[in-house]
Amino acid sequence: MIKTLSRRAFLARSAVLGCSAAASPFLTRVSYAAAPWDTRLVVIILRGGMDGLDVVQPYGAPGYGALRRDLAGGPTRGASDLDGFFALHPALAPLMPLWARGELGFVHAVSTPYRDKRSHFDGQDLLEAGTADLGMVRDGWLNRMLQLVPGVEAQTAFALGHGEMKVLAGQAPVADWSPEAELSMSPQAERLMEMVMQDDPLFHPALTEALMLSRGTSMAVVGDMAGGDDGEGMMQPPRAAAGKGMVPVAQFAAEQLRGDSRVVSFSINGWDTHRNQGRVLGGALGNLAETITTLKDGVGAEVWGKTAVVAMTEFGRTVHENGTGGTDHGTGGAMVLAGGALRGGQVHGRWPGLDEASLYDRRDLMPTGDVRAAAAWILRGVAGLDRAGLERSVFPGLDMGDDPRLLR
Questions:
Q1: Which of 44, 46, 48, 64 is nearest to 317 (CA)?
Q2: Residues contacting 188, CB < 8 A, separation 6+
Q3: Residue 91 DSSP SS3
Q4: How far is CA 361 from CA 58, 114, 295, in A?
Q5: What DSSP string runs through 254-290?
Q6: What number of other Cβ atoms are within 10 A of residue 265's Cβ?
Q7: Residue 163: left (phi > 0), alpha (psi -120 to 50), or beta?
């Protein structure tokens, strides 16, 4: 088990040198990992409850238009037809070339075992824990997967972003990175810090990793951090990327995946569409489309051909739209899959129907599949793990069912 440096310990030990808190790459989360397989895996948590019915629109389903008088989509409303029954939200139109090449797909009517309370916090915790009960485990399913693989190093997996990535939390070594954490030091300052920290068993490795991650990215950054430097010229303040959405994260992820890293996980916010869903969801989907295309362009054709991108959310949303042009917390939702390693060009899953008798609790899309099962089959194909280990250790208590053949 590798010891980790807590935020409090990092700040306490760095205060003597006048380091700004925001200069630490450990205050926001981005995780990566390297492993003895060649396929790359990107797991994206879509926080807020993405409305799968608006993303992958069942315009061919009886009753769909009546249930969503204002939000109903389909080819006549600018959506891209997928298969004569489903259509893709207009904001994801930039991804249609991937669909045509079989590099974009979806799994519909899926959910975690979470039911009824519909809390974002509990729903996301269960999604990242990969269990049916929050009390079963303390680590994340992606980290437990890494624990089954001998020889995994910290640079195998990365957790990227602004919040804790519980899906990668656990005993397996994982590296973190944040787009705001750019550590810039003069050679003299680096040497001084090395001398001061060289005998510290926790801070010295943390400093080494911080410098490595900072040097490993060439992203353009703008804007000054509030608070300035320490007045001695030892360390320049970090600078935050402005107006670029998830592009810096996707660029950094692609850079790592071109090398030894095999797993990257990060989250995208903005999916809670209680009001004005037409505008809010379009913005979130545009961000997702840009993230996927940035990943594809960044890794290059060869690596993209062996990459699997899996985007998942804590729950879907109500079938009926509400009175404020939005939808409320629901149950069944959808997964977004991309990458050359996937069998795209199709909507996977068993469609439950939209008549009242087919809905969950007469309000939500009925889940006909477990989002964990789809993730487990992808892990089996990516890392070559056996089914027993996946059902027992990675997703405790899961029955994976039949192989949906999500990978090529």
A1: 48
A2: none
A3: helix
A4: 20, 14, 39
A5: HHHHTTTB-EEEEEE-----SS-HHHHHHHHHHHHHH
A6: 30
A7: beta
**pTM of the shown model:** 0.80
In sequence order, what are the residues at sequence separation of 6 or more whose Cβ sits closer than 8 angstroms to the Cβ of residue 298? 250, 251, 253, 254, 255, 257, 258
* Integer Cα distance of 318 and 338 in angstroms: 26
Q: Identify the CA nearest to 393 among candidates 205, 139, 157, 198.
A: 139
Determine the length of the chain.
408
Q: What is the mean pLDDT of residues 261-285?
A: 96
Most confident of 7-21, 70-84, 124-138, 169-183: 70-84
Q: Is residue 392 over pLDDT 70?
A: yes
Q: What confidence score (pLDDT) does residue 354 get? A: 98
Q: What is the mean pLDDT of residues 165-180?
A: 89
Predicted confidence at residue 151, as pLDDT, reads: 78
Most confidently predicted of 22-36, 146-160, 280-294: 280-294
Distance CA 265, CA 379 (A): 14
Looking at residue 193, what is its pLDDT? 62
The pLDDT of residue 153: 83
Q: Residue 133: CB partners within 8 Å, gap ≥ 6?
A: none
Contact (CB, 8 A) for 63 and 354: yes
- The secondary structure element, H or E, covering residue 87 is strand 87-88
Span 74-117, pLDDT tens digits:
999 999 999 999 999 999 999 999 999 999 999 999 999 999 99
Contact yes or no for 345/320 (Cβ under 8 A): no
**Residue 362 and residue 394 in contact, taking contact as beta carbons nearer than 8 Å:** no
Q: In CATH, what is the architecture of 16-176+240-394?
A: 3-Layer(aba) Sandwich (3.40)
Sketch the domain layout of the chain as residue ranges. Answer: 16-176+240-394
Residue with tokens 């911080």: 210
What is the full DSSP assignment across 148-199?
TSTT-EEEEEEEESSS--GGG-SSS--EEE-TT---EE-HHHHHHHHHHHTT
